[in-house]
Design a protein that fits this description.
Layout lengths: L4 H5 L8 E5 L9 H15 L4 E6 L5 H15 L7 E6 L11 H24 L4 E6 L2 H11 L7 E6 L6 H18 L14 H14 L10 H17 L6 H7 L6 H19 L2 E6 L2 E8 L4 E2 L2 E2 L2 E7 L2 E11 L6 H11 L4 E7 L2 H12 L6 E7 H7 L6 H8 L3 H23 L4 E3 L4 E3 L1 H20 L3 E3 H17 L10 H17 L3 E6 L2 E6 L5 H8 L1 H13 L3 E2 L1
Parallel strand pairs: 1-4, 1-5, 2-3, 3-4, 11-12, 12-13, 15-19
Antiparallel strand pairs: 6-7, 7-10, 8-9, 10-11, 14-15, 16-18, 17-18
Helix pairs in contact: 3-4, 4-5, 6-7, 6-13, 7-8, 15-16, 15-17, 16-17, 16-19
């Protein structure tokens, strides 16, 4: 009788007994070892005291000595409170095609004696020690034919892997295998689903595509090998998928042919992925904790609603947000561009684009980034991958992360950078403490330098994100953060004017050029600042802060404020 795995785990096994997992329908490739491995995990999870071992039988004669020594070693670890489960696989290696029947009997008898001897020793001591064998149809028949009277009566069937699938199981298995195969082939697979489709032919086409194009990995595959792989799937198809037809596929994949449904599902998956993988973070900057929390509710910004957003805060102080937007459009239409620009005029954004053509997506994003000062962190995922991975249930996040490795880590790094920028801005806006002396106010020189360093760090972070930045955008960033820097001096009537910024910017650029950290270039009448390989934010701050601190110090002197 074929039990479900969870039902097998509930069975009360007899101490010192020998069980076997088998198949009556096929010799190889039906999943006996996989079922045994799942059982092994199940026994380990049942109790913290459970011990398991998965052994591979070697070819005789060394196989006998090896298996006997290992079984005895496992038995020593077993006691009345600690059950021990030993799985033995690859027992087919005991039999070779050219052996005589007499030699087959001797080999099976010798292995049987080893197993029975150790099981009897465990039974005599009352130890919960269990041996579980993995039998193919071939070896099972040989043992039954030659040793039905002695050995087979000591072996008891635990489970057959020949599960009888219910009608609803076929569609679920087909859907998952189909989605996994399609995801592997997303670069080469086009829309091959039609009202009437030969499932096996479609599987064959997908395997052929992936093997034919595996040259991208520098691997050569002969056509004969492709045929062998397809033949394996033909066996699987005949054993399991014979009840799956085009109508079932069409029904399961209906969302794939409806752009409205597909877009809604993709947005839902993105929200769920972020919510479960990156929902609450904390970053520490100079003893200050910045909390980042994801809110899946929509937020309206400049007349447009986000798909969700990250909220940044220091204690009870909300210091900024980051909208999250996703789309599976072929091209960014005017409304989507207007929406993204509205967000980017106020905040950096996390943008997930399920694209149709990668080059088109990159070009449109480049045009968008060239026209905004805020940063957009983009996750690009091919539509052919997204469509079919969305059919999966628990595995869909794994596929997403596999395509873009370290995806959660990359998003966290981007969030940390934005948290640092917001922290710097928050610190710049805090009023500078002033010491009242006998005759005049005194500002700490350290306070001035700290705020200027944070100001420049935000500026050079913007430059560090790209190889080149236009001069106009760089000056806009300087002006943007200038208002935050000036806030801390407002009380004392000290500020750096917009006219000063142009001069300061020229001084900074010249200094970066002289230190070989950056260079100029001109493209189609647009001037750009290009960072060199030697560029670093720390070195840029160190050599450029003097251009701002000197001006602040001079303004303090003009106002009669001392510096120490």
């Amino acid at each position: 009788m074929a039990y479900e795995l969870k039902e097998i785990l509930k069975l009360n096994l007899i101490p010192g007994s020998i069980y076997y997992i088998y198949s009556e329908r096929a010799q190889y490739g039906i999943g006996k070892s996989q079922i045994a491995y799942f059982l092994k995990i199940g026994y380990e999870e049942k109790s913290s005291n459970n011990l398991t071992k998965f052994l591979i039988f070697k070819r005789p004669p060394e196989g006998y000595k090896d298996i006997e020594e290992k079984l005895k070693a496992c038995l020593k670890q077993c006691n009345r409170q600690r059950p021990f489960y030993v799985f033995i696989d690859e027992i087919d290696l005991i039999i070779e095609p050219d052996l005589s029947n007499e030699e087959k009997v001797k080999r099976i008898e010798r292995l049987g004696n080893i197993l029975i001897q150790i099981s009897e020793e465990a039974a005599t001591m009352g130890l919960p020690f269990y041996i579980l064998l993995i039998f193919s149809y071939h070896i099972l028949k040989i043992i039954e034919n030659f040793h039905s009277s002695r050995i087979m009566r000591r072996f008891e069937a635990l489970s057959s892997v020949d599960y009888d699938l219910k009608e609803g199981d076929f569609n679920k298995i087909a859907r998952n295998l189909f989605a996994l195969l399609w995801a592997m082939n997303y670069r080469n697979i086009k829309n091959k689903i039609e009202d009437k489709v030969d499932f096996f032919s479609l599987i064959g086409e997908m395997i052929t595509d992936v093997l034919n194009n595996i040259g991208e990995l520098g691997i050569q595959i002969e056509s004969s090998v492709i045929g062998a792989v397809i033949n394996i799937y033909k066996i699987i198809y005949q054993l399991i998928f014979k009840n799956v037809d085009g109508a079932n596929l069409k029904k399961n994949n209906r969302i794939l042919n409806n752009d409205t449904d597909l877009g809604r599902v993709i947005e839902g998956i993105v929200k769920e992925f972020i919510k479960k993988r990156i929902s609450l973070l904390e970053f520490k900057f100079e003893e200050t904790i910045v909390k980042v929390k994801y809110n899946e509710k929509q937020k309206e910004i400049a007349g447009f609603k986000t798909d969700g957003y990250f909220k940044f805060s220091i204690g009870d102080n909300k210091i900024g947000i980051m909208p999250v937007e996703s789309t599976c459009e072929d091209k960014l239409d005017w409304r989507k561009k207007k929406q993204l620009k509205a967000f980017l005029n106020n905040y950096p954004i996390l943008f997930v684009w399920i694209y149709h053509k990668k080059q088109d997506a990159k070009e449109q994003l480049q045009n968008l980034e060239d026209k905004v000062t805020k940063e957009v962190y983009t996750i690009l995922i091919p539509l052919d991958l997204a469509k079919y991975s969305l059919l999966l249930e628990k595995r869909r996040f794994k596929l997403l992360e596999h395509f873009k490795r370290n995806l959660p880590l990359d998003i966290k790094s981007f969030l940390r950078k934005q948290a640092r920028i917001l922290y710097n801005t928050w610190m710049m806006e805090k009023p500078i403490p002033v010491v009242i002396g006998e005759k005049k106010k005194i500002i700490r020189n350290k306070e001035i330098h700290n705020k200027v360093e944070k100001y420049l760090e935000n500026l050079f972070t913007y430059l560090d994100e790209k190889t080149k930045r236009s001069h106009s955008r760089m000056k806009e960033i300087m002006e943007k953060y200038l208002s935050s820097l000036n806030k801390s001096f407002d009380e004392y009537g000290i500020s750096i004017s917009d006219s000063d910024i142009s001069i300061i910017y020229r001084e900074i650029v010249e200094q970066l050029r002289s230190e070989n950290l950056c260079r100029f270039t001109e493209i189609e009448d647009n001037k750009f600042l290009i960072k060199e390989d030697s560029f670093s934010i720390e070195s840029a701050i160190e050599i450029c802060e003097k251009f701002i601190t000197v001006r602040i110090e001079n303004k303090c002197k003009d106002k009669g404020i001392g510096i120490n």
